[in-house]
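Progress against Task 2.4 (sequence-to-structure conversion) is shown through the following example record, which the project officer requested during the mid-term review.
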Amino acid sequence: MRRLDELHLEHPVYGSRRLRELLRREGQVVNRKRVSRLLQIMGIEAIYPRPFSSQPQAGHRICPYLLEGLDITGPNQVWCADITYVPMAYGYMYLVAVMDWWSRYVLGWELSNSQEAEFCVRAWESSLELGHGVPLISNTDQGSQFTSEAFLDAVESAGTEVSMDGRGRCLDNRFIERLWRSVKYEDIYLQDYGDGLAAGRGLARWFAEYNNERPHQGLNYATPAQYYLDPDGHGARPVVWA
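Structure tokens generated for the chain above:
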């Protein structure tokens, strides 16, 4: 599972057949059925246009995609959230993060040993407490955590509209996908955390550095915190589509 996670970051468009072939070239005898099962456990899917970017739970409410044609020009206009698999020395966990789309600022994150919706709700609620405002739109994929009634209620009760990636929207969470690549190569893979407590402490340090110290090329080498906390000084403009 650790190696599949690494290969997915290197080749995000590869499905189970190609990943199986890469593993076989490395001497790991594995069939496609097992690769598919492990990818499902990790919550990993190849990135390419298809009817659904992530499968919702049967009966869960699916919301329309709201970002088409929107010019996102400042903080708290759109927040996005996503989940990734976290390999550790002994077992694995899942990490969710909530990010401000415009500034790339990580507002909240949570670790969990399961993919239940509760840890996503906690990350959203902590983001509301720590953020400097309430977003107009929350954008996620159609995964069962984000289509759960608990998560939808937490978002909508804050007065935020819900947007979900749909057909052909495979790149809409590209900013947070880049975040996953950074945190894994710069921290998780290097540290090889032994348990959730150690991972939590280490990730807290990494996210603090990411927000406050790390120059971001996409932000003209400012930090996400500089953009989020001083938007006027970094060219933010009022929203025109609300």
